[in-house]
Amino acid sequence: MGLTIRPMRKDDLPALHEIVNVPEVADVLGPIPPLTYEKFEKWHGRFIEDPKHVALVAQVEKKVVGLVTLGIGEEIHRHDSWLSIYVHKNFWRKGIGTQLMKAVINVAKDIGLRRISLVVYAGNDAAIHMYKKIGFKMEGCQKYGIYTLGKYMDTILMGLLLDEDLPKEE
Amino acid sequence: MEVKTRCMAKKDLEDINKIQNLRYPFGNDLHIIPRPYERTVKDYEDQAKDEHGFPLVVEVNGNVVGYSIIYIWRFRSRHIGSISLSIDQKHVKHAAKPLLQAAIDVGKRLNLVKLFTEILDKSDELQRLFEDFGFEVETRRRKAAFFGRKFIDCIGMGLVLKEVE
């Protein structure tokens, strides 16, 4: 599998739009299909228009199969960022999520961020396991944080302090 | 003393900007100061157009001494609203509870399931205010804020407005 990770471009948006409208992806990511292209473009446009944010795509051969973004905080949170990640369901369990996470963490370090925050719904054990393995720590549980899969579910807040939590390199 | 809450309007923005430029306001809507007036105006204009934002002010004897913003989350968390507020310390005694009560009432009118707020660690008086209205601590984002020249944890607090299955 020839995996490439590179910055997102505007011409990636149609392929990414297709991925987030796959129900299984949307269930874990949050949007409610059908999500129109216009709404999707508005949602993802800030990552292209505002260079302070970070967006990397995963590409297998010539096909865009996933995205990771960091929305950089403002004011007293400007050293922090919020992470969002998704991968096309046909490419789940192939290590693409982990590769995207590692790549975005390197970018975060390069641009001087101190923290990455993320939210995942309780019960998404595969994702929680991946985040923990990378070094994220659980920072609490939000009751009724999301309505998905037909019910209200709690969400887990996780954080990574870039100068404290990453496993030491051998 | 007359205390009143109402919807924020353009005419309030100079007063709002003054509160935002206080070094230690009471609340969790904290900014890097000096905060230009144009930023306050831009934020207001964005909120005024955005159907997710509901800004309020609190007046004491006709003077705006604080404000709050209720913001509805998106997508599958659109049953949750976040509350931020900021009040001139001199008026906390009279203005804080009416303002927070008004913000919670907005959440109820919107039929939200839950309200959420995030405050700086060790903001004891602010935490007590939210606890008095039933908010409970749910999360602690380590070193998520930089304020007063140091990194500080952010404490997330939630208030369930109605139990759901």
Q: Summarize model confidence as the mean pLDDT of chain B.
A: 96
Oligomer: heterodimer
Strand content range of chain A? 25-35%
Distance between the termini of chain A: 27 Å
Cross-sheet strand order for the largest sheet of chain A? 1-2-3-4
For the sheet with most strands of chain B, the description reads: 8 strands, mixed
In short:
The complex is a heterodimer of chains A (170) and B (165). Chain A has 170 residues and is an alpha+beta fold. Chain A is 31% helix and 35% strand.
How would you describe what is shown here?
The complex is a heterodimer of chains A (170) and B (165). With 170 residues, chain A is an alpha+beta fold. Chain A has five helices and seven strands. The model of chain A has no long low-confidence stretch (mean pLDDT 95). Chain B has 165 residues and is of the alpha+beta class. In chain B, strands 1, 2, 3, 4, 5, 6, 7 and 8 form an eight-stranded mixed beta sheet that branches. The longest helix of chain B is centred in the middle third of the chain and has 18 residues. Chain B is globular and about 45 Å long. Chains A and B meet through strand 6 and strand 7 of A and strand 7 and strand 8 of B.
Task: Present the secondary structure layout.
The complex is a heterodimer of chains A (170) and B (165).
Chain A: E1 3-7, H1 13-20, H2 23-29, H3 37-49, E2 54-60, E3 63-72, E4 81-87, H4 96-110, E5 115-121, H5 125-134, E6 137-148, E7 151-161
Antiparallel strand pairs in A: 1-2, 2-3, 3-4, 5-7, 6-7
Chain B: E1 3-7, H1 13-20, E2 26-27, H2 37-49, E3 53-60, E4 63-72, E5 80-87, H3 92-109, E6 114-120, H4 124-132, E7 136-147, E8 150-160
Parallel strand pairs in B: 5-6
Antiparallel strand pairs in B: 1-3, 2-5, 3-4, 4-5, 6-8, 7-8
Helix pairs in contact in B: 1-2
